[in-house]
C-alpha cells in the first residue's frame, strides 16, 4: 500500500502525541515538530505508511534519546489485557464455532493501537466495545480451508496487549505456530519481552523479524524471518500495519485487522469490493494467495 498525501498530517500528529507521552518541554517538542516538518516533504509516497513512520520515530529518538517511549504503556497494556483473558477464553469455549469466535476476539484486540489513535483508549472498555463491531470482509471459509491443511503456520503479531488475544486464537487453533514479533521498539508494537510477559512464548516458537517498522517490510527483515515467511503455508497477519506492508505480497496470507483510517478503508474497498462498502472501525478477515 502506498502512502497517501492524507497520511502526512497523521505523521505529525504521531510525533506530537509521542512528545506529549514523554512530557517533553515545549522547546524540545518544537524541535521535534520542526524536524518532522523538514522530513515530510522527503517521504516517498511509493513506500508504505509503516516505512515512512519509521523515519519519523527515528527523528524523535535522535532528538530525545529515548529508544522506547511506549515501554510503560506496553507493560500496562499487557497487564490490562491479561485481566480479560479468562472472560475471552470462556466466550470461545462456549461458542458453537470456537475458531470463528477466537478470530473475532483477536480482531477486537486490534483496537489496542497507539499509533493510529490521538488518545489512548482504556483497554477494557475499548475491547468490549469493539466486540460489537462488524466485519466488512469475512473470508472465514477460505481461512478454515487453509488452516485445515496448514503444516507451517507463521503468525505475525502486532501490538502489546493485543497479543493476549492472539494467544487465545493460537491456543484454539491447536497447531504448531511460529510467532513473529518486531525486532526493535516502534510505537506499542510487541517485542520478545511482551510475548514472554503474557505467556505466549510457552505455546509457540518465538522469533522476531529483525526490524523496527510498525509493519512487515520484507526487504528489511532478517534472513531467519524471511526464511520462515517463505516456507509458511499459512501466514496469519495481525494489524493494520502488517496489512499496509503485505497487501501486495504474493503469499498465503490471511489478514485480521481493524480499519482505522479512511485511506485503509479505500484500499480494502479497492481490493475486496465488499458490499455494503467498507467503513472505518469495521474489521477485516481477508485471505490472499490462498487457494
From TrEMBL:
Residue ranges annotated for the Damage-control phosphatase ARMT1-like metal-binding domain, each copy included: 4-268
InterPro entries: ARMT-1-like_metal-bd_sf (IPR036075), ARMT1-like_metal-bd (IPR002791), PH1575-like (IPR014444)
Superkingdom classification of source: Bacteria
The protein's name: Damage-control phosphatase ARMT1-like metal-binding domain-containing protein
Organism field: Candidatus Magnetoglobus multicellularis str. Araruama
Amino acid at each position: 500500500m502506498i502512502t497517501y498525501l492524507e497520511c502526512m498530517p497523521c505523521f505529525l500528529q504521531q510525533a506530537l502525541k509521542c512528545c506529549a507521552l514523554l512530557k517533553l518541554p515545549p522547546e524540545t517538542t518544537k524541535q521535534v515538530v520542526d524536524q518532522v516538518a523538514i522530513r515530510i516533504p522527503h517521504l516517498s509516497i511509493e513506500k508504505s505508511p509503516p516505512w515512512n513512520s519509521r523515519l519519523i520515530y527515528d527523528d524523535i529518538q535522535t532528538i530525545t534519546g529515548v529508544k522506547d517511549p511506549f515501554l510503560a504503556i506496553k507493560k500496562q497494556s499487557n497487564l490490562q489485557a491479561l485481566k480479560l483473558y479468562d472472560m475471552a477464553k470462556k466466550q470461545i469455549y462456549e461458542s458453537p464455532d470456537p475458531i470463528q469466535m477466537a478470530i473475532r476476539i483477536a480482531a477486537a484486540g486490534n483496537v489496542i493501537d497507539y499509533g493510529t489513535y490521538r488518545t489512548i483508549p482504556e483497554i477494557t472498555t475499548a475491547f468490549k466495545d469493539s466486540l460489537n463491531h462488524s466485519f466488512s470482509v469475512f473470508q472465514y471459509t477460505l481461512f478454515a480451508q487453509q488452516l485445515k491443511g496448514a503444516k507451517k503456520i507463521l503468525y505475525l503479531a502486532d501490538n502489546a496487549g493485543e497479543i493476549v488475544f492472539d494467544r487465545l486464537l493460537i491456543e484454539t487453533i491447536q497447531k504448531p505456530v511460529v510467532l513473529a514479533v518486531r525486532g526493535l521498539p516502534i510505537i506499542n508494537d510487541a517485542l520478545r519481552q511482551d510475548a514472554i510477559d503474557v505467556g505466549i512464548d510457552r505455546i509457540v516458537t518465538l522469533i522476531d523479524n529483525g526490524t523496527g517498522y510498525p509493519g512487515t517490510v520484507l526487504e528489511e527483515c532478517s534472513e531467519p524471518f524471511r526464511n520462515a515467511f517463505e516456507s509458511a503455508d499459512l501466514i496469519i497477519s495481525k494489524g493494520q500495519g502488517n496489512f499496509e506492508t503485505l497487501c501486495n505480497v504474493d503469499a498465503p496470507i490471511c489478514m485480521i485487522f481493524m480499519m482505522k483510517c479512511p485511506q485503509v478503508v479505500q484500499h480494502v474497498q479497492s481490493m475486496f469490493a465488499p458490499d455494503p462498502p467498507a467503513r472505518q472501525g469495521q474489521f477485516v478477515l481477508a485471505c490472499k494467495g490462498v487457494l
